Amino acid sequence: MAIKNYTTKVDVYTSLGEIQGALARHGATKIMVDYVDGKPTALSFAMSSAGAMRGFTLPAPVAGTLRAFESQRVKPDPVQAEMTAWRNVRDWVLAQMALVESCDVPVDQVFLPYLADNQGRTLYQVYKSGQLLLGDGGAS
Fold first, then answer.
1. In this structure, are residues 87 and 15 in contact, taking their beta carbons and an 8 Å threshold?
2. By the number of CB atoms within 10 A of the CB, which of 8, 60, 72, 79 ranks highest?
3. Phi, psi for 77 (deg, rounded to 5)
4. pLDDT tens digits, the chain, 140 residues: what are they?
């Protein structure tokens, strides 16, 4: 089965706008897009959480999408990979917002792995590097 949205024709900026709208409707107070060589690579947003402003960073995995295209024998088109990556981020954000609305969980909880520190590293990146140790979770 091919990666989700591999045939999308939706422009990257349309997907970005839909993501920004969903985040703003659910409490984001600042939204910024990171660019490399004129192409959007990540979307960062801030919202109040636990009494303070917190930042979150959502990357668009364009390189990973290209690898998926190649392994799934989909034409490895960089423009299509960019549209697909951002459309999948958009779908994921909207799914998270549905959980917020239906499961009574806060927005910051569903985006917790993407919580960013003052160096721009996400919580998951810090955890993966071994700098955040959670213990064995009570396992013996």
1. yes
2. 60
3. -95, 115
4. 789 999 999 999 999 999 999 999 999 999 999 999 999 999 999 998 878 899 999 999 999 999 999 999 988 899 999 999 999 999 999 999 999 899 888 888 999 999 998 888 998 899 888 887 777 666 55
Contact in structure between 113 and 122 (CB atoms under 8 Å) = yes
- Residues 6 or more apart whose CB falls under 8 angstroms from that of 77 comprise 69
The type of residue at 102 is S
Tokens of residue 99, six digits:
């959980």
Is 130 in a helix, a strand, or coil?
A: coil
Residue 72: φ, ψ to 5°: -100, 10
Residue with tokens 């997907």: 15
